[in-house]
Fold these 2 entries.
Entry 1:
Amino acid sequence: DGGITQSPKYLFRKEGQNVTLSCEQNLNHDAMYWYRQDPGQGLRLIYYSQIVNDFQKGDIAEGYSVSREKKESFPLTVTSAQKNPTAFYLCASRTARNPTSPLHFGNGTRLTVT
Amino acid sequence: GQQVMQIPQYQHVQEGEDFTTYCNSSTTLSNIQWYKQRPGGHPVFLIQLVKSGEVKKQKRLTFQFGEAKKNSSLHITATQTTDVGTYFCAGRGGNQFYFGTGTSLTVIP
């Protein structure tokens, strides 16, 4: 079955440590996105990538970094510079060939930093 | 940046009652999509509206796109417990999708 896999489902880290969240898709989608979800704030865009080796900052990119070395993979690193990293992180992808194609989401990773 | 607001933030209804959530954008949208997120789950695409004034129906769900393409609504007729979840609108601007703040629906049996 095609889909988006995020791992792990739950992640715990100590403050000051960098942590990388995995996102893999086998849908052959060109575009991939990272969103952060906090209660009452909806989904906020962190980074997105339209093509391999290229990515753009979203509205809340500070304290995060990404890479897009392969079409299937778009890992997100939450750095120690991120002030409030505890959140639910969602990865999504879509085909870029159709400008109106919807987003397909992974199951998310819940990150807790103490 | 572009802002998409949704109201209400929370809605509790008795099973069988109707429910409506409203989405308003600060700018004109090329299209609008609606997603549903079940508790503990991830957003799942429901529908997309593209044309000004467009109305689409999916069984008990009715989606509407405003004439000015700056607002949209989702109406559920006779809610059921399976309708529980958070409903998000998302407007497309360039290569980005701007999500509304979501409306969390609780259905009381």
Entry 2:
Amino acid sequence: GENVEQHPSTLSVQEGDSAVIKCTYSDSASNYFPWYKQELGKRPQLIIDIRSNVGEKKDQRIAVTLNKTAKHFSLHITETQPEDSAVYFCAAIPDRGSTLGRLYFGRGTQLTVWP
Amino acid sequence: KAGVTQTPRYLIKTRGQQVTLSCSPISGHRSVSWYQQTPGQGLQFLFEYFSETQRNKGNFPGRFSGRQFSNSRSEMNVSTLELGDSALYLCASSWRESSGTYEQYFGPGTRLTVT
């Protein structure tokens, strides 16, 4: 099955700096890559996603890039704020022509933004 | 659209007991996945149900089981509870089209404590 690796496991940045989290995947059939943010004690929330026919997607301070050839995708957060502190999970789902919904998750990155 | 709901939100059980958790997906979503989350262990996939059938299963012992009803609501059961089963159990409902459109959202989780 699909294997998603995520790095780094922890990331500390100063408020205002940028943060980058990287993920690699193994299954070339994967075509949908969401990112989830999980604040302490809360559920994972979808913050941005990208599909394989797109190389980059932006939403305000958050952007995701995808390199299908290299099988990696990254989350970029600019102008970080303390409220960005959370665990971030990347995920991938292979397209095998079915309607199955299992996402394959990375192990998560604990982002801490210091004021 | 109502979100994913899970009941109960908190549960305390003793070793050897069994427990049943419930998940109601977003209306129209036919796939339900279950995850176990313990500190530092990320999101461990338990199983996925689609149209009342288990379609994917993670690497958990047979004490963990589940089912899905015709209205897409799902339950998971853990028998002979162990201390290590203490965790946040997350349910996710998803919807996918063969065209590639996909979405998955998490419920608030059930916090299970085994004493």
